[in-house]
Predict the structure of NEDD8-activating enzyme E1 catalytic subunit.
Amino acid sequence: MNVILRMLVDGDTGSTSDWDDRWNHIKKFLERSGPFMHPDFEPSTESLQFMLETCKILVIGAGGLGCELLKNLALSGFRNIHVVDMDTIDVSNLNRQFLFRAKDVGRPKADVAADFINSQFHIIVCGLDSIVARRWMNGMLEHILNLSLLVYEDGVLDPSSIIPLIDGGTEGFKGNARVIFPGMTACIDCTLELYPPQINFPMCTIASMPRLPEHCIEYVRILLWPKEMPFGDDVSLDGDDPEHIQWVYQKSLERAAEFSITGVTYRLTQGVVKRIIPAVASTNAAIAAACATEVFKIASSAYLPLNNYMVFNDVDGLYTYTFEAERKENCSACSQVPSDLHFSPSSKLQEVLDYLTESTSVQMKSPAITTTMDGKNKTLYLQSVASIEQRTRPNLAKTLKELGLADGQELAVADVTTPQTVLFKLCFTS
Ligand SMILES: [Zn+2]
């Protein structure tokens, strides 16, 4: 389902309904100089006109963070705001979620989406809770950049072809805001290690040395449930079934009492079982404000943007700082260099697949691996189509040598985390 809305601030599309002094608060930043201005900025009335009339912003995500962002942007003078609500979007199908028209039939979907974004938007803002969707969007902006680089034969970057990405994320009392200039500054995938796959407690802690109420709940969820199967042999734990949660809650209380741990509640039990990280309105507000400020700074060019990553944490007191995340030389999203995959010729394809999903710097979901042999494309493994999965599954147990792969061979990998295939180079270790 496409959810692309045009926000009509005030219910009109022009600026005729402005009352006197409506934008006075904004004008103070744009029409007079100040000590924090961009050194090259000349105060004028043009920036505000650009923001009100021309600048188009794509906001991705309309959840807690996204809605807060929309309000801030609208009150800052932006009137052309498009919203894509990722809640209704199936991450496995992101390419399809942008508008496709009859004339686009037969064109690569990533190219159509790239054209759509490139021809319309000046700035993209992400307020998403999904890392996959965020990485996809990041990859899309890199794709747009590559397409426009093809136009300039000398390969010199034209700064106007860059669509900045402002990315905000929150998790409970923690949040971050960052500014990405594709091709120039660190992208989402450059710093993938900053997004840990999921918080899991060490098994030894859960099994024998619990200290937190969460450890007790995890003990029941991971170890006790499969052992006792309280609702029958085939019944797996369902976080939405109150009887299941009640059982886990009671057993967790017993476990907690044994180790003199307090704090196990029904609500916490459900939160742990369903992996709910509670949304904190104040964190969303702080991060949305930081993101909207960056949009304002970039759209007006009046101030230097954040360089380039802000961390916010109010778990215990209030802590915030910024640092410059660095580009990764062989980033799979923003560098043109294929990443090296170091494996021995006797490694199995399964090991390569495990690496692609488990490595913190790659973190793919269901990679499809293809290569070229004797001038022909060969699918080594593909999960998403059942018939192909079945046909290629035996390859997983074969060694790279048995598959006929050579040292230096390029593997093209497609995944939901990126709109384009990612190239890897096989480097044999002895
Ligand atoms: Zn990168």
Observations:
- Residues 131-151 form the longest helix (21 residues).
- Residues 187, 189-190, 327-328, 331, 333-334 surround zinc ion (CB under 6 Å).
- The mean pLDDT is 86.
